[in-house]
Design goal:
Strand 2 and strand 3 form a beta hairpin. The chain has five helices and ten strands. It has one domain: VC0467-like (3-Layer(aba) Sandwich), CATH 3.40.1740. By secondary structure, it is of the alpha+beta class. The radius of gyration is 16 Å and the shape is globular. It starts with 8 loop residues before the first strand and ends in a 16-residue tail after the last helix.
């Protein structure tokens, strides 16, 4: 039985994950229930510009040239996800709380390409997924630290500063943490 949902939390990879796929990542949990969890890594930009992705889908490219696509996680990396504010939604948009939507349809890319997209958004390829009880087990084994998500961290903080910002929101200097954690 699920004790409490981690939806709208950030998972801060603990230093003991350095050298693994999730080392030095910050992952936003979009959905968490008894069947498992789905999240998007929010601090690992790819070398793909958003304009390149829009061109691949024959969309307009009226977006900032500095917008990049993120690596959302190891699962279905060919599939795109847009985490965005609720001011624009499509038929494929899934409300995930806190005035945020998750959309995996081409329609949202077309809207973003015209320049009429959501006020806040990020585009990611792939996602992080956990099966039933898997994330809870990883938390019990000190793989992650949970941090409440904020729109500032999700959309306004530069990628390379997101981990430190999330840790500082808990009063932690993440750079001083040891990779050798145990149970008290």
């Amino acid at each position: 039985m699920l004790s409490s949902s981690l939806q709208h939390q950030l998972l801060l990879a603990m230093p003991n994950q350095t050298g693994t796929y999730f080392g030095n990542t910050l992952t936003y949990i979009c959905d968490h229930n008894e069947q498992g969890a789905l999240g998007l890594m929010i601090n690992r930009p790819t070398d793909i510009a958003l304009t390149e992705l829009l061109i691949q889908f024959d969309c307009a490219t009226n977006v900032g040239t500095d917008s990049v696509v993120l690596e959302g996680g190891p699962v279905q990396q060919e599939r795109g996800f847009v985490l965005h504010s609720a001011d624009v939604q499509t038929t494929g948009s899934m409300p995930i709380g806190n005035d945020l939507l998750l959309t995996a349809s081409r329609e949202i890319l077309e809207i973003i390409g015209t320049g009429d997209g959501p006020k806040q958004f990020m585009v990611a390829l792939g996602y992080a997924g956990w099966g039933e009880g898997q994330l809870e087990n990883e938390l019990a084994n000190n793989a992650w630290l949970t941090v409440p998500a904020t729109s500032e961290i999700l959309f306004d903080t530069p990628f390379d500063q997101r981990i430190d910002s999330a840790a500082k929101s808990l009063g932690i200097d993440f750079q001083l943490m040891s990779p050798h954690l145990g149970h008290a």
